[in-house]
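Chapter summary example: a protein plus manganese (II) ion.
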Amino acid sequence: MNLKDIKAVKALLAEPQKIVIIPHKNPDGDAIGSTLGLWHYLKNAGQTATIVAPNDYPKFLKWMPGNDAILNFEGQNKQAKAALDEASLIFTLDFNHFGRTGQLAPVLEASTAQFIMIDHHQAPADYATIMYSDVQMSSTCEMVYNFIDFLGDIDKITPEMANCLYTGIMTDTGSFKFASTTSKTHLVIADLIDKGAENTTIHNKIYDTNSPSRLRLLGCALNNLVILPEYKTAYITLSQAELDKHAYKKGDTEGFVNYGLTLDGIHFAVIFIENTEEGIIKISFRSQGDFSVNEFARNHFNGGGHDNAAGGRSDVSLEETVKNFTALLPLYTDKLNK
Ligand code: 5GP
Ligand code: MN
């Protein structure tokens, strides 16, 4: 963020605003952690602030301080709509185009509020008065930490905020191992621990909440793993029937895609998950090294994300989706084998 933008934010926040904070649809640890971290900061500064999530999210994210105040646009539409109608200022966190907010998109489109974007994805859309967009950043949570620092308020980070921000940095960096993790990320994490983030507790709350059915679903996914050594690629499929058989709950497949990358010599990992209710196949892409899954998802599967982690969707059957996918791989032989 440049000095002009920092000054502009300070001027906006010097006045009482009616603020709404929005994470992307199917929010993850970074989306919930960053919105809650910012929410505590704004509330403590005397602002009126409400978080509106486009839809529900997994239980393993629902322990963060302030969670109960989050409105779900699907479940609490009236209250959420009222907050949005009144909003003078809307923060959009961890996404950069309205299409990532599902049914909220037309509401945001029609809003007369000013927008502030804080985000680390590629190709930001042009809707925000103030745009803090940086694709080098590990996570939106690291950016919210910086944002508070830019405003000169680093000492106002409370233990509640520290716990929320730590969570999102941890989940978006695969526990501090992805290439986006910098020495600065570790310095931020260290400061958040000093400010009250309970690191061991957070790891337990996010990663050690397996149910027996989720572990068996993982077994099923790994059993379905297909390895294509000639393309350094591995993919997993999960049909709706397989999800049903294992009492699937939102969030149960989180992290499954990463197992493909743990294979020696595999640089591209994919999971295809059938969702009959939405009539789509939800796809997650992960890579190691130079192969950009953001481009791949953008070009072929109506999605996007980061160079090494992206998502997308397909509107044809699971079988056809996989067929289309494997037919694309020969086009990328060189890039995948680099
Ligand atoms: P995941 O595979 O965990 O759902 O998402 C990986 C990354 O890709 C995240 O940064 C997420 O925001 C982004 N992403 C996931 N699905 C989509 C999508 O449908 N469109 C776009 N543009 N980004 C996505
Ligand atoms: Mn993120």
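Key point: Residues 29-44 form the longest helix (16 residues).
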